[in-house]
Fold this sequence. Notes:
- The protein is an alpha+beta fold.
- 66% of the residues lie in helices and 9% in strands.
- It has helices spanning 2-40, 47-70, 85-94, 96-111, 115-118, 121-134, 144-161, 165-218, 224-252, 255-272, 300-321, 356-365; strands at residues 276-282, 325-333, 336-343, 370-374, 381-388.
- α1 (2-40) packs parallel to α7.
- The longest helix is centred in the middle third of the chain and has 54 residues, at 165-218.
- The protein is elongated.
- The two termini are 50 Å apart.
Amino acid sequence: MGKTVRQAARATVQLVRAAVLALGSCLFVTVLLITLAATATVVGAGVLPETVRLVRQIAGAKRRQVALWTGREIPEAYQPLTGPPRERLRTAVRDPGTLTDLRWMAAYYAYGCLACLVLPLWPVGLVVDGVWCGLMGREAVVLPLISRVADLDARWSRSLLKPSPKARLAERVEELTETRAGAVAAHGAELRRIERDLHDGTQARLVSLSMRIGLAKRAYDRDPEAVRRLLDDAQDQAEEALTELRHVVRGIHPPILTDRGLVGAVRALAASSGLDVTVLVDGLEGGTKSGAEGGPRAPAAVEAAVYFVVAEALTNAAKHSGSPRASVQLERVSTGIRAVVWDEGLGGADETGGSGLLGIRRRIAALDGIVTMTSPVGGPTMIAVELPCVW
């Protein structure tokens, strides 16, 4: 009986909050009518975007109420009200979210005061359920109706406030536009890095190699010992140029991914790291050219993205965390691959402090993935990425 009363009390509080919000919405009708009248006169059309912004705040308050009761958030899909007055007015009128909110507000006038229905249930429920449960040992029948009314309010609100397909499509287009811009920026930065590595490293060594071979040709007849020294230097330069070229190639697509797969490549990264790295694998064991133990492998672009994320995270941990240990977890999920890198260092990682974490976000966003980072001061630091792919 005590649990039933507590649940009914919680539902009553939820419904009272809903009723207060409904009352505020009714009072907002006056503001809405004034806005419509001002918009009709054209002179006061600039008030409309601010009114729409207020409608969004009221709808957002209801979304938070429903999320608090059900534990599931209702997504929002609004176009930003920014720019000059004419653009803000056009956005306020054409945004599908405006129509969704107004439709909910109109319906909320009818069902927003469901709390009035539950007030008579309390005295009846305390008497009936007190006798029914206390004396006869049966389950309560009246007080649970209060929770059902709260569920009904949440269900109707979720149905009316969820974004329309058109709004979700507009949000998705905007998200893909930002992702494309980030991918283009990341691609440009990668090309500049490759060009810089080739110019400052491989090209410089090849020029030096060419000069030594030229000097050796000139001294071939008159100074054989000098020629030998020059050829030895030329051989060293050729080996260094080859090393530089391999480094550049690994930055484009590591050959170890092709030879040993993602798991083997990450284990090689862990072995070469300056930290004591533990690699945990779930569902991706193996990793040869033919796949994980004969199973399918993720696309090459996905494996490369995960590899570079792990490499960057381990490098940052070795440089800045102050922790001697780190862990890497690779997990195959139904929708793709999830990778988590964490350390028990100092924490306080800041994405604005360098290009490494920003590069991770751009690389993952280009493949429609998700990046989650937590790094409170004092640690630990955790970077988790999830990339979609078809198995």
